[in-house]
């Protein structure tokens, strides 16, 4: 059973021609129209809006006009020539922001977890290098 | 104009050939959709010469980027109308900043009863009310009402949800209706 509110919504969306309504809604609307004066008034109101929209000027596109535009397009394409086919393996890949940023963020996260949190350990990375024999000479001459 | 081509070749097949540089296939595709594209553009931009410019730009853009056509389950017409509507909206926005001398004359809302007798005047008032709509509402009205697309099809063209499309359409109809209220009274009054 269609409510008057639903009916109003459909009428303001599709207009008064029930053939343009979804089939099930049109069927329910027919039932409502059978006993509701309010629904009939709403439909008549929508029909007025439809009538006004029908008065809008329909753009006339004559054959001559169509041909003129077609010829302009053809002439421009003739000037440009056929675009060179680029093999896929040397074609410029499309820039995709989301996957690129996602990949970089994931790599950064993995690096952080590996080297700072110790949550992910890599073989060899866990063992700190023995630096006891290394002598560091600073540019000021100090030796550590 | 030459006779219409074989309609059995799908748009998508023609577009695939065009992507491979087949100029003839692109010509067939252009002939098939040019008229409707000009009409749609004209409803959005509001005048004939700009609509021709828009349609020309759209087909040249499609030819230049034909190799990027993927299909991906999208119908060619949905893709084409999306480009037409977006290009027409951009064009109209640029024109908004044109000098006032070049701007179209706005309709006088206080028309007289005599002028309403003239059907062309009524049409002009309706055109003016539609032209005053926000771009996307006007596009929604053109696609659903004049191009007779379903809300689902039109929502794909405008790249919005179906519910958003419905809202655009309802608001467009309400706005046009409100602007033309005096005209409706006049029509009601003219009824026997």
UniProtKB/TrEMBL annotation, chain B:
Pfam families: Sigma70_r2, Sigma70_r4_2. InterPro entries: RNA_pol_sigma-70-like, RNA_pol_sigma-70_dom, RNA_pol_sigma70_ECF_CS, RNA_pol_sigma70_r2, RNA_pol_sigma70_r4_t2, RNA_pol_sigma_r2, RNA_pol_sigma_r3/r4-like, WH-like_DNA-bd_sf. Keywords: DNA-binding, Sigma factor, Transcription, Transcription regulation. GO terms for molecular function: DNA binding; sigma factor activity. GO terms for biological process: DNA-templated transcription initiation. The keyword Transmembrane does not apply. Residues 30-96 form the RNA polymerase sigma-70 region domain. The keyword DNA-binding applies. Residues 125-175 form the RNA polymerase sigma factor 70 region 4 type domain. NCBIfam families: sigma70-ECF. Belongs to the sigma-70 factor family. ECF subfamily. This is RNA polymerase sigma factor.
């Amino acid at each position: 059973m269609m409510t008057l509110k639903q009916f109003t919504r459909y009428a303001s969306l599709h207009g008064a021609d029930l053939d343009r309504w979804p089939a099930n809604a049109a069927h329910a609307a027919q039932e409502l129209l059978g006993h509701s004066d309010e629904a009939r008034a709403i439909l008549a109101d929508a029909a007025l809006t439809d009538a006004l929209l029908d008065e809008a000027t329909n753009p006339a596109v004559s054959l001559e006009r169509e041909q003129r535009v077609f010829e302009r397009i053809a002439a421009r394409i003739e000037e440009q020539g056929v675009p060179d086919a680029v093999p896929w393996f040397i074609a410029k890949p499309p820039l995709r922001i989301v996957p690129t940023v996602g990949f970089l963020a994931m790599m950064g996260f993995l690096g952080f977890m590996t080297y700072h949190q110790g949550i992910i350990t890599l073989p060899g990375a866990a063992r700190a290098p023995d630096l006891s024999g290394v002598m560091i000479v600073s540019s000021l001459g100090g030796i550590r | 104009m030459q006779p219409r081509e074989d309609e059995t070749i799908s748009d998508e097949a023609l577009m695939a050939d065009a992507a491979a540089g087949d100029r003839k296939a692109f010509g067939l595709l252009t002939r098939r959709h040019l008229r409707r594209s000009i009409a749609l553009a004209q409803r959005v931009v509001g005048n004939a010469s700009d609509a021709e410019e828009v349609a020309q730009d759209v087909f040249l853009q499609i030819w230049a980027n034909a190799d990027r056509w993927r299909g991906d389950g999208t119908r060619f017409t949905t893709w084409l109308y999306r480009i037409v509507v977006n290009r027409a909206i951009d064009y109209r926005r640029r024109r908004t900043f044109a000098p006032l001398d070049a701007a179209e004359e706005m309709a006088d809302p206080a028309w007289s009863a005599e002028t309403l007798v003239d059907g062309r005047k009524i049409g002009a008032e309706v055109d003016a009310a539609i032209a005053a709509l926000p771009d996307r509402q006007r596009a929604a009205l053109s696609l659903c009402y004049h191009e007779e697309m379903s809300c689902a099809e039109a929502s794909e063209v405008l790249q919005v949800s179906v519910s958003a499309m419905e809202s655009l359409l309802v608001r467009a109809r309400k706005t046009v209706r409100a602007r033309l209220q005096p005209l409706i009274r006049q029509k009601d009054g003219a009824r026997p």
